């Protein structure tokens, strides 16, 4: 018999019972307790009379009038119950409203669940009572199977029949309460299926989904699984079914994904949870086709994230990274992001996410670089992927992190070059400046000078930096002072071009560079460090040669506040490199008077009969006389009186007389 509220399936239903035979152990004992046939006939006549004559008693009134005993185990009680169930089924078939809940409420006034289950052995009543019990108590299925009342191996389709959901049509309403009611009924069926699986019944997830989609349609099936996720302990189970549902028909994956994500959005499921529902296959090294599938699904997930945010919900970029890592691991998360860099509209976003990934998992930096190399990504782009914090004064921790990040980037640059790609030192400097600004670029390079194997390379890069951004020279000097770098090293950092004849532009740049360097020397000394005038001369000669050193100093004589200092330096230069005595060409080019030139010649004081000193003096004065003649030869005026006066002013009357006697005795 059928006791469902509406649609009536086949009266017998699917063959799910263990047997249609009566399970009483002793046929004779049954005969002994069976009521007289005429008594049963009398009850039947009453029922038939009620039905045939159209006299309609309320089912509840009739139930109480039958006065069945507690337990409903007596033959007469079972007959009366059978009569009542038959009567109720007829009324329902004619549209009378009497719910299963009310029916069960009445039955439980006469018998317990266990006693009702025992009554189901009665063939006449088993269909109706089993369905009623399974509607209300799906957890009783194991006992029913154990007692042989139902088959142990039912299909999900058979179990669907025995649930009240089988009597409902697919939803065509947007009424949320109607949807929830259907989902609760489906939940009873699902719990029944899961209970049968726990009882060794082999039911695949595919079979469960097949019944869901066939009976309820794709939209209801998807909605139910989302609803199921909210039930305690069901989240992982629902996620696996959602994944399988989307994958079931590959040709419809796109449609199913859209349906699923719309459903998720309506009930505000977080992107983290949605990710676990997505059918993302594992990746194999040569699985290019799998990568394409993964790429598509992850891209759809990013669309969901944006839609989720657009509705006012919060899901940060950090949460995106964490979700990828927690579900797929650091390596695959990195690989997903590299795939997305191929999308023009995703590149900037992905760069930011990759920075967050490496910031949270620093060990991924090397893996990221390897992926970048494989994809031939330029160092310029790679630097944007490195999470380098802004430098803040003396924060050693931040500076150390910065140093590490940039150092690894230099390794990437070298690896990139070793693969035959071009990335010049100028490009290194420009990349640092564009990403971090001139000041931080300079600071990074100073940090690297501490590495013995990086010093020469960094000096070259700092020269390029100052050459491209001359205003950085002062900043560089300040950094050098903070690091107590000697003027000797600093001069190598200044991009001073070689002098070429009368190229005024080059000479002006040189003049500016050396002049700033002199300022650095003074600041260095002002901090208490030692750097003598002799060291200045030696540094100029070692870096530029004797000739250019002399030319630099002549340029500086044009500066009024530098003249006396330069004269002293030129004396030291000539004293250290005597061959420079003959080099009076620079003085002539600058039309420097012999009076000034004499002050440049390092003539020691004479000491008695010290022949070596006297010889040096004689040589110096002799060179000066040659200069006087050359100066006059260019048409400039310098009289003999001026010669005498110059000697006296610079060396005194006594030495002037001695010089002249030397010349008188040695000149022929």
Automatic annotation (TrEMBL):
<feature type="region of interest" description="Disordered">
    <location>
        <begin position="1"/>
        <end position="34"/>
    </location>
</feature>
<protein>
    <submittedName>
        <fullName>Uncharacterized protein</fullName>
    </submittedName>
</protein>
<feature type="compositionally biased region" description="Basic and acidic residues">
    <location>
        <begin position="22"/>
        <end position="34"/>
    </location>
</feature>
């Amino acid at each position: 018999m059928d006791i469902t509220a509406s649609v009536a399936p086949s009266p017998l239903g699917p063959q799910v019972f263990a047997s249609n035979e009566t399970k009483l152990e002793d046929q004779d004992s049954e005969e002994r307790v069976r009521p007289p046939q005429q008594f049963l006939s009398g009850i039947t006549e009453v029922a038939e009379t009620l039905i045939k004559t159209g006299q309609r008693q309320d089912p509840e009134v009739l139930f109480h009038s039958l006065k069945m005993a507690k337990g409903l185990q007596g033959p007469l009680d079972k007959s009366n119950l059978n009569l009542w169930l038959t009567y109720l089924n007829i009324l329902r078939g004619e549209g009378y409203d009497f719910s299963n809940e009310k029916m069960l409420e009445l039955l439980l006034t006469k018998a317990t669940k266990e006693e009702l289950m025992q009554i189901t052995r009665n063939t006449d009543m088993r269909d109706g009572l089993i369905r009623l019990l399974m509607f209300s108590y799906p957890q009783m299925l194991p006992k029913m199977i154990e007692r042989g009342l139902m088959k142990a191996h039912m299909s999900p389709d058979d179990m669907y029949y025995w649930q009240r959901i089988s009597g409902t049509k697919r939803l065509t309403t947007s009424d949320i309460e109607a949807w929830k009611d259907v989902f609760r009924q489906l939940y009873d069926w699902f719990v029944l299926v899961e209970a049968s699986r726990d009882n060794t019944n082999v039911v695949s997830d595919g079979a469960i989904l097949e019944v869901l989609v066939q009976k309820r349609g794709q939209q209801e099936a998807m909605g139910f699984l989302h609803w199921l996720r909210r039930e305690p302990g069901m989240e992982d189970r629902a996620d696996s079914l959602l994944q399988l549902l989307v994958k079931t028909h590959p040709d419809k994956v796109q449609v199913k994904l859209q349906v699923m994500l719309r459903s998720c959005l309506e009930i505000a499921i977080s992107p983290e949870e949605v990710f676990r529902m997505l059918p993302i296959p594992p990746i194999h090294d040569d699985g290019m086709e799998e990568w394409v599938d993964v790429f598509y699904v992850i891209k759809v997930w990013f669309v969901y994230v944006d839609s989720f945010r657009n509705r006012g919900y919060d899901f940060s970029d950090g949460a995106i990274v964490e979700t990828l890592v927690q579900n797929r691991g650091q390596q695959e998360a990195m690989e997903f992001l590299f795939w997305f860099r191929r999308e023009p509209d995703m590149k900037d976003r992905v760069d930011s996410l990759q920075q967050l990934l490496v910031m949270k998992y620093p060990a991924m930096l090397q893996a990221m670089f390897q992926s970048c190399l494989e994809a031939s990504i330029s160092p310029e782009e790679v630097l944007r992927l490195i999470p380098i914090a802004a430098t803040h004064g003396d924060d050693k921790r931040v500076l150390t992190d910065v140093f590490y990040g940039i150092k690894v980037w230099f390794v990437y640059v070298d690896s990139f070059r070793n693969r035959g790609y071009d990335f010049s030192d100028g490009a290194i400097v420009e990349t640092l400046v564009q990403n971090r600004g001139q000041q931080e670029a300079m600071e990074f390079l100073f940090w690297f000078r501490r590495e013995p194997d990086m010093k020469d390379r960094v000096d070259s890069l700092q020269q390029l930096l100052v050459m491209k951004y001359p205003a950085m020279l002062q900043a560089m000097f300040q950094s050098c002072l903070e690091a107590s770098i000697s003027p000797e090293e600093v001069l190598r950092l200044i991009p001073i071009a070689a002098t070429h004849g009368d190229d005024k532009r080059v000479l002006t740049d040189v003049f500016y560079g050396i002049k700033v360097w002199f300022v650095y020397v003074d600041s260095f000394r002002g901090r208490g460090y030692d750097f003598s005038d002799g060291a200045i001369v030696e540094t100029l000669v070692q870096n530029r040669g004797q000739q250019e050193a002399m030319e630099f100093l002549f340029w500086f004589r044009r500066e009024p506040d530098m003249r006396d200092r330069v004269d002293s330096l030129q004396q030291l230069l000539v004293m250290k490199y005597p061959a420079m005595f003959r080099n009076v060409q620079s003085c002539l080019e600058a039309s420097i008077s012999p009076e000034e030139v004499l002050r440049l010649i390092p003539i020691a004081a004479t000491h008695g009969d010290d022949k070596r000193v006297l010889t040096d003096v004689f040589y110096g004065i002799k060179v000066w006389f040659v200069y006087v003649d050359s100066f006059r030869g260019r048409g400039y005026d310098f009289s003999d009186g001026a010669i005498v006066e110059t000697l006296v002013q610079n060396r005194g009357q006594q030495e002037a007389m001695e010089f002249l006697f030397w010349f008188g005795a040695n000149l022929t």
